[in-house]
Amino acid sequence: MKTAVVSQKGWIVIPKIFRQKYDLKPGDQVRIVDYGGVLAVVPLPKDPIGTLRGMLADGPSLTADLMAERNQAKQNEEARVEQSLRAG
After folding, report:
1. How many domains does the chain have?
2. Are 16 and 3 in contact (CB under 8 A)?
3. Is the Cβ–Cβ distance between 27 and 19 less than 8 Å?
4. Is the same domain home to 47 and 65?
5. Does 69 lie in the same domain as 29?
């Protein structure tokens, strides 16, 4: 566990081991996230578009899931209408 000291200007130095691990260079951006009592320093990607490209390629097809859900809703509606016609 590494410790950093907050300066009078509110600056902290990220320990060298973490700068190397996360390839942080002067001028790189980080986001400070407040998790309700815990502050996290999150490195921002140098190329956010390139980093995210293809991220969902191996996952399930959201379009297929949406179409299946709509088909199920349509079948449920048709069954409900048919049932109300029989009852009426």
Report:
1. 2
2. no
3. no
4. no
5. no
pTM: 0.51
Strands 30-34 and 39-43: antiparallel
For residue 28, give the nearest of 18, 37, 56, 67 by alpha carbon.
Answer: 18
Cross-strand pairs, 32:
41
Which of helix, strand or coil describes residue 40? strand
| Per-residue pLDDT, 26 | 94
pLDDT digit string (tens) for 30-85?
999 999 999 999 999 888 788 778 777 777 778 888 999 999 999 999 999 999 88
Measured between alpha carbons, how far is 26 from 19 in angstroms, rounded to an integer? 10
Find the angle CA(7)-CA(10)-CA(5) to the nearest 5 degrees: 40
